[in-house]
Amino acid sequence: MKLFDVYPINDITIEKGAGSNVWDDKGTQYLDLYGGHAVISIGHTHPHYVKRLTDQLQKVGFYSNSIRIPLQQQLAEKLGKVSGKEDYQLFLCNSGAEANENALKLASFYNGKKKIIAFKKSFHGRTSLAVAATDNPKIVAPVNETDNVVFLPWQDEKALEAAFKQYEVSSVIIEGIQGVGGINVASESFLQKIRSLCDANNAVFIADSVQCGYGRSGKFFSHDYAGINADIYTMAKGMGNGFPVGGIIIAPHIQPAYGMLGTTFGGNHLACAAALAVLEVMEQEQLIANAAKVGSYLMEQLKQLPHVKEVRGRGLMIGIELPEELNQVRKDLLFKHKIFTGEAKPNVIRLLPSLALTQAHADQFLTAFRDELLKY
Ligand code: PMP
Fold first, then answer.
1. Ligand 1 within 6 A of 104 CB?
2. For the chain: N or C, fewer Cβ within 10 A?
3. What phi and psi values does residue 165 have, to the nearest 5 degrees?
């Protein structure tokens, strides 16, 4: 059987990882500033993570959600403590799309309304409602097309107010920092505006934190910069450091009905062990503060480099916009300098490294990047 390649792939086989480095099958070492698309939050093969998962696998890896799994409650408590959202309820699932799917459904169940406000260039996943709220016609099939989703221009307060007047809005879904859309940071005032319009209209504020959440921005949720609370936060990616874990946290005024939320695999013993290990390491090693510190250092330094048109982001979620003639630089960073980066658009390099990235790693990248830029 032939494998369907879901992405254009680089012909590299990764066999080993440790911290912010990975090695290919020939033993070549790479610096990983992509983190497998924002998934590697605490670094590759962190010893505490490996031990917690291995120990759990030796006890019990899976049973089912029809029995009590104390690890789930431990995870909810830890997550409440680290995120500061202690009065929320946690529902565990397996991916970002599933988290958004459930959040959008739950919002509509809660207020009985249908219209969803989403934004241009948003990305919320590839399942039914999540893809309908994603601004990318390439990945929507006819069956997902729904007139329940209204796409508004990014950060346009007037359009937002008008949409609330025109429609019975069920929910607004927004990434605190758009990831796939090119690293666009939502302003504090825009997030506050959404909050006040949702309050005034009994609409649900859904903070898609799948990519920008979990400490990546230098705060637990990037929406925290605006000093507001969303009604539902959706999470995945960095939550399990590579083990598939997703979840939503739900504010106390929203009470899901029994049977509405559920999944076979969500919250299994291994997933909880992985997610707990991530939060434990984040706390012990103060990784959120590290993301803020190393991230702002990196952004400041990047702004000084030649040809760099714009540097956007927060913490360790950074977009570097280059002139289009420099689209080759990302490939050269990989093949000549052995540095993995991500792409937001062909001319926007996206950095999504482990939150444990050191200043020395940042400097290694800056030196290589400067060398390449100076060739133009
Ligand atoms: N929301 C955002 C903001 C994302 O970046 C992604 C994945 N790129 C998703 C949702 C979907 O997550 P998953 O691939 O785990 O379904």
1. no
2. N
3. -75, -35
Give, using CA atoms, the residue closest to atom 5 of ligand 1: 211
d(CA 101, CA 129): 6
Residue among 174, 237, 350, 352 to mutate when testing ligand 1 (max atoms within 8 A of CB):
237
Pairing relation of β-strands 317-321 and 310-314? antiparallel
Please name each of the domains of the chain with its CATH number.
14-46+286-373 (3.90.1150.10), 47-284 (3.40.640.10)
Q: How many Å apart are CA 246 and CA 21, to the nearest integer? A: 25
Please tell me if the CB atom of residue 210 comes closer than 6 angstroms to any atom of ligand 1: yes
Tokens of 141: 């099939």
pTM: 0.98
Could you report the predicted ipTM of this complex, rounded to two decimals?
0.99
Q: Cα torsion at 57, 62, 66, 67 (round to 10°)?
A: -20
Instruction: Name the residue of 94, 101, 122, 124 whose CB sits within 8 Å of the most ligand 1 atoms, as the mutation to test its pocket.
Output: 124
Question: Within a 10 A sphere around the Cβ of 331, how many other Cβ atoms?
Answer: 13
